[in-house]
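Q: Could you fold this chain for me?
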Amino acid sequence: MRSRWLPLVLAVGLLAGCGAISDLVSSPDKKPEIDLKLSPLSGIPNGYNKPILVVKIDNISQARPHAGISAADLVYVEEIEGGYSRLAAVYSSTLPTSVGPVRSARITDISLLRQFGTPAFAYSGAQSKLRPVLDAEDFIDISNRVTGDGWFRDEVARYSPHNLMINPTRLIELAQEKGSVSTALRGFKFTNNPMPNGQLISSVTVKFRVTETKIIWNQTANGWNIFFDGDLETDSLTNKPVVAPTVIVQKVLNVPSVYKDSTGSFTPEQQLIGSGKALLLRNGRSLEVDWSRSLANEITKYSYAGKEINLSPGSVWIVLLDQDREIQQN
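A: Sure. Below is the predicted structure, expressed as structure tokens.
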């Protein structure tokens, strides 16, 4: 079925009762047991207080499969000019041997990065008009325009310009030499309890102007498989499909920025401060929730019935979708 939002979702949640809601949200009346070894970005063990690295990743067909993507705590799917998508992968808990292919930054990255304070940011340059704007930001710049160390090209399996890779461990070291890299101290709430609310679904499809992202529930893997334009998202380091226990489709306002590509197509600036609706996908169910972020240095919060929701431990994927576009659920 095709719908912008499912009107029965909230009713399903209410009929599930107070016990069901308590499994979904974090209750202010109860102090959860906090394991300081768990990452606040993904709920992954041994991820607390580790430095944060954000990598801008190419996402056209020639760039796939991606390397090291399954190790990311968070993966944002952004819309860029022409209606294509690009990824911003956030690493903290685990650093793979390599990540890529890496591509250039966009204006939306600035708002995204500010959530994490002063993370290390790996990207392969930017258009000339955007560079001074990036230079004024507080993140630790470890792009290939400031260092060649930790960067290399995979000339065996890939072709330029879709073969620029990084050694994330080395880039974190270089970033720490340059400045104080922020660490994973705040983020989301996690639980292993299944989400009782919402509607049972098998897949969700969202479309940018010319590209499609499909999210399919994998019961065996207990998570969601991601498909970009029909291609199953896999990790070239593991040769296994990516499995995301939690996916959030966040509806945001897209506005034309002052930046455009060589063909004259304007880069959309996705508005990440404010509030709106999102679709939470967990354990084979979907539920309409709210998102909010009032300050630039705050991490986006997701809530249901006025309380912050719990996510499933593991990699979290967040698709930033123009609020005027529909979400197809099946």
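A (continued): The chain has five helices and 25 strands.
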